[in-house]
Specification:
By secondary structure, the chain is an alpha+beta fold. The chain has helices at about 5-10, 55-75, 125-135, and strands at about 15-20, 25-30, 40, 80-85, 100-105. It binds guanosine-5'-monophosphate. Guanosine-5'-monophosphate binds near residues 15, 29, 85, 91 and 94.
Length: about 140
């Protein structure tokens, strides 16, 4: 079954598009976390970061940069968050890979909590985590 984003891309469901090329679209998120909150979505349906091809993900990011410049020009936000939820536990609700581009006007207009939840880690704990990730990358 196709995702709601595929239906938007196929123009079966309306959305406020701001960008389109052969591979990617960008349209306003129906839930405007802040003024101009935009989603950048590949036309081809990939569930998440684990299935989207690297080159396509790179193009999605390139479009997110373009959209960020446009948002800056249009609304003059004080900053921008770019984020992608992957997996239900991370907050993903539409299982079609996408980036959120969220202009920020105030520190408190969106709540993210990236505080240090593991302040008791030793140097060895960090070393071991880095070692495991490096091993997985090679
Ligand atoms: P996720 O939670 O998967 O990271 O983000 C999905 C986003 O899609 C949500 O922010 C939600 O508001 C948005 N969304 C869901 N359904 C629609 C829709 O029909 N139209 C638009 N424009 N956005 C949608």
């Amino acid at each position: 079954m196709s995702t709601i984003f595929s239906k938007i891309i196929a123009k079966e469901i309306p959305a406020h598009f701001v960008y389109e090329d052969d591979l990617v679209v960008a349209f306003l998120d129906i839930s405007q976390a802040t003024k101009g909150h935009t989603l950048v979505v590949p036309k081809a349906e990939f569930r998440d970061i684990f299935s989207v091809p690297e080159d396509l993900a790179a193009h999605v990011m390139k479009v997110a940069v373009k959209v960020s410049h446009a948002l800056q020009k249009a609304f003059e936000p004080a900053g921008i968050n770019i984020l992608s939820n992957n997996g239900e536990k991370s907050g993903q609700t539409v299982f079609h890979f996408h980036l959120h581009v969220i202009p920020r006007y105030e520190k408190e207009d969106v709540k993210f909590s990236l505080k240090n939840n593991m302040s008791n880690l030793s140097l060895d704990d960090y070393k071991e985590r880095a070692r495991l990730i490096k091993a997985a990358l090679s």
